[in-house]
Design a protein that fits this description.
The complex is a heterodimer of chains A (237) and B (378). By secondary structure, chain A is an alpha+beta fold. Chain A contains two helices and twelve strands. Chain A is elongated, with a radius of gyration of 20 Å. The radius of gyration of chain B is 36 Å and the shape is elongated. Classes of the chains: A alpha+beta (237), B mainly beta (378). Chains A and B meet through α2, β3, β5, β6 and β7 of A and α1 of B.
Chain lengths: 237, 378
């Protein structure tokens, strides 16, 4: 149950929240269709694994409690993760070549400063996210043999944790939240060897608003989103 | 593939827009109050006077805030000084008392000494002010005491105005100028008074408003009559068209005469400004490439009964043969006093018969003058 103040903030962004939900449902439908099709064309599937690393830029996080809104700025952080997936072969000629994969990721940012109505104060602590995502990606293999553009979307779950966050010396939030997560990604794959390729890409990652309890036992709604510029080594077998 | 790219872009841009910066409305209440600093205009005050205290909170060294209206004020000895919930202390008797401000378990302390000094005289500022009608004047009073100390008494003295039709004054020393004239302003405290004279003069010009604010699609050689209205400190509006200085931002495109009549000589946009001292207002005027080539007065043989009026119309003919009414923009001229034709808004072009006979009437715009018509007064 959200607080009245949080409801007010949500009201400011309600149209976007509605769009988020619509997009998530759309992405879920696409993933479901592709999973079903993948199983139907299992004879074409070729498995692969990948390791991902990248720089992560987290958006200014707006937090709302019953006393008002404030926001947090984060230092640039990192993203690391891995995937296990399948090439879809020619199962979807209308989409081009594609992949479907299960991804586990870890994101880390340090808190930089907090913006209140009374001013901006130095802030400390960590923001971490562990996510498990189901991604589906479309590859455009006919463009060039040297690089393969791809786009994709994914849904899953994210465990968002604000660890020992403080403003000055005063504790702020030390709590965690499990939320539905979604992402959109794009980039190019560069084949290095017959079964090894390097992905260079960007992804937008966000979750439904995580809810925390602050040091004064108040419910706080947060808006969480970030951008990652990443490299991934992908090995098929 | 294409629709997936489009879907990706829509999702990314739409969702990233949701993270736009939000203006903070919440105060930092995570950082506890760590100190309260009490400040005062005076470390000691004379008996029977008052003193305003301010409490400033230091929140964990991160920020400070005025918390005067949040603390609980108290005096250690109300026989010496009392203090109200807004931090205004009143001296009751000579001595020293501890003023405290309490909030969230944190206390700020200030030691206030009440002296037995007697008020010797009051100094008022400003001396002999002259104020325009409709404006206000803030007076201040400083007390000079028997021990040579001084203390601001603006909020302590009793302020009076001798002629309340000319000026009134409230108990903060703010005087309002109501009518032209002179009034004595007096500050009194503890049997001591000081008086100065406040002179209220005519209202001052506050701003100018030029109308029309924009004259658009005006052919070359067609007059536009701009008017200037003064807005004065007593909220009155006065016509000041002939008192202001008129200027054009580009005389090569349009000129404006001292009566505010502007005429375009080339296609383009100009700013027409009316100014009086440092105060000014500006209107825009856009001139087209079309040119006025002829003015025709309608009717061609007008007549009017003595003492009656009739409307004359000036029709402008452009080089593209288009015609339009320029009655309000032209300058109407007559060759005698048998009749008059108005140049004043809103009756431009209205002819009045004065004496039986005939009058030759012409209309001019820019450098174009109409063929004269003969107006007969019956």
């Amino acid at each position: 149950m959200r607080s009245a103040a949080a409801g007010s903030l949500a009201g400011e962004c309600s149209r976007e929240d509605l769009l988020k939900q619509l997009y998530i449902r759309l992405i879920c439908c696409i993933c479901l269709l592709l999973c079903t099709a993948t199983m139907a064309s299992a004879q074409h599937a070729q498995p692969y694994v990948s390791l991902i690393g990248g720089i992560q830029l987290t958006d200014e996080m707006t937090l709302s409690d019953q006393t008002g809104d404030y926001s947090l700025d984060f230092e640039d952080g990192f993203f690391t993760g891995g995937t296990f997936g399948f090439y879809l072969g020619d199962a979807f000629p209308q989409l081009g070549k594609g992949r479907i994969e299960l991804e586990v990721g870890f994101r880390y940012n340090e808190l930089k400063e907090a913006h209140f109505a009374t001013g901006t104060d130095p802030a400390y602590g960590e923001l971490t996210t562990i996510s498990v995502m189901l991604n589906t990606l479309a590859e455009y293999r006919t463009y060039s043999p040297y690089y393969i553009p791809y786009v994709g979307v994914g849904v899953g779950l994210a465990h968002v944790a604000m660890i020992d966050t403080r403003v000055g010396l005063s504790p702020m939030i030390d709590d965690e939240s499990l939320q539905i997560a979604y992402q959109a990604l794009a980039g190019v794959s560069v084949p290095l060897r017959e079964k090894l390729s390097l992905d260079c890409g960007y992804r937008f990652f966000s979750t439904f608003d995580p809810e925390f309890t602050d040091s004064q036992n108040r419910k706080v709604d947060a808006e969480y989103a970030n951008h990652t510029f990443e490299l991934a080594l992908r090995l098929s077998f | 593939m294409r629709w997936l790219i489009a879907l990706f872009l829509v999702i990314s841009f739409t969702l990233s827009g949701c993270g736009a910066e939000t203006t903070a409305t919440k105060e930092n209440d995570f950082s506890p109050l760590s100190d309260i600093i009490i400040t005062s205009e005076n470390p000691f005050i004379a008996n029977k006077t008052s003193n305003q205290f301010t409490a400033t909170g230091n929140f964990s060294g991160l920020f400070t805030a005025d918390i005067s209206d949040q603390v609980i004020w108290s005096s250690s000895d109300e026989g010496i000084v009392t203090i109200d919930s807004a931090g205004l202390a009143s001296a009751v008797a000579p001595g020293t008392a501890q003023i405290s401000a309490l909030m969230d378990g944190v206390v700020g302390i200030f030691y206030l000494t009440v002296t037995d000094a007697k008020l010797s005289r009051i100094e008022m500022l400003p001396i002999l002010p002259t104020v325009s009608k409709g404006l206000t004047q803030q007076f201040s009073a400083v007390g000079i005491f028997s021990d040579a100390s001084t203390q601001v008494l603006t909020d302590t003295v009793t302020w009076t105005s001798l002629d309340v039709d000319v000026a009134t004054i409230d108990q903060t020393g703010l005087a309002a100028a109501l009518e032209e004239g002179v009034s004595n302003i007096t500050a009194a405290f503890d049997g001591v008074t000081e008086t100065t004279t406040m002179t209220v003069v005519d209202a001052a010009l506050i701003s100018i408003e030029v109308s029309p604010a924009a004259a658009v699609d005006i052919p070359q050689r067609v007059n536009v009559k701009f008017l200037a209205t003064g807005i004065y400190s007593d909220n009155s509006l006065r016509p000041i068209t002939t008192q202001v200085t008129w200027s054009s931002s580009n005389p090569a495109v349009a000129t404006v005469d001292p009566l505010g009549i502007a005429v375009g000589t080339a296609a383009g946009d100009v700013l027409i400004t009316a100014s009086m001292g440092p105060i000014s207002d500006t209107a825009t005027m856009s001139i087209t490439a079309d040119k006025l080539v002829e003015i025709r007065i309608v009717p061609a043989t007008p007549s009017v009964a003595q003492g009656a009026t009739t409307a004359l119309t000036a029709v402008g003919i452009l080089d593209n043969l288009a015609e339009f009414d320029i009655t309000k923009g032209v300058i109407w001229e007559t060759d005698n006093n048998n009749s008059t034709v108005s140049n004043s808004a809103p009756t431009e072009g209205i002819a009045t018969g004065i004496t039986p006979g005939t009058t030759v009437v012409k209309a001019t715009s820019g450098n174009i003058t109409s063929e004269p018509v003969t107006l007969t007064v019956n």
